[in-house]
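Session log. Operator J.P. requested a structure for one protein chain; no other inputs attached. Running the standard single-chain path with token output.
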Amino acid sequence: MTLEAFPDAAHPITWPEGKRAAASFTFDVDAESCTIAHDPKSTSRMSLMTHQSYGPKVAVPRLLQILQRQDIRATFFVPGFTAECYPDTVRRIVDAGHEVAHHGYLHEPMQGIDAETEARYIDRGLEALAKAAGVEPVGYRAPWWELNWHSAGLLADRGFLYDSSLLDGDAPYRFTVAPGDTRDIVEIPVDWALDDWEQYAFYPGVTGSGVIESPAKVLEMWTLEAEAHHAQGSCFVLTNHPFISGRPSKAVALERLIERVKAMDGMWVTTMEDIAEHTRRTVQEVHTHARIEVLAFPDTGARFTPPAVRESRPAAAGS
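Structure written below.
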């Protein structure tokens, strides 16, 4: 069976005229932030800090050269702390015509934090991006892809267009920020199979199993993923970290992947912002995420609040 034999996925999106699928290459410029958030004492480890600073210092310039050669625009998710430490890097990304989006302040652990604390993280990140390069991001990706049930409301309060932290789809969709709330934002789903962290990330005592995959194997896997998304008309979103995929052989494999994806007939390779704006303009169906409550396990079953529902809302003006 060929990939073309698979039926189209059940997602309510069509792409611009002449396009049959979409792809976006995204980069999380975590630098030192993720290790400091995990353990503030890590700042005393000189070698670890240099491992992380390789991203903004060496890898981002290399990646920008690749993107220029391939003539594509990408999305860089930048923590506020990274913007404060490396404002020239952020300005260089902006000057090259790429999108800069929000990725927390210090790549904070997000699981279970309250709305007030999360709002402080978001606002601190916004301030840092604005100060570094005059950036007013429209997109957000939660550190560790860990969105909370109150997060979407905080994003809507601040005028964000889209989020890219959830894992329940192959194509973008709109969802309500809270039950009964008339506002919605666009979600552009992600996938751990399309994250370089799981393939390459290793630092003794910090992360990884010690197995660093061959870029040839990763190129094959990601090519298969891209071909599958192309065949079903969905959205291929790759997440890379410059301090990982900006290393020489990994960067070579990434450029080969970009060439392959660009060559797919009707593949729209663009920024997350472009994809989100298209979704807002053309998709009328709006999803409401239901929370699962388990009242007294195992004596009672699960309850969904509210029940899963899809409604139709007008597309944005200009559609």
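Operator note: The chain has one domain: 21-285.
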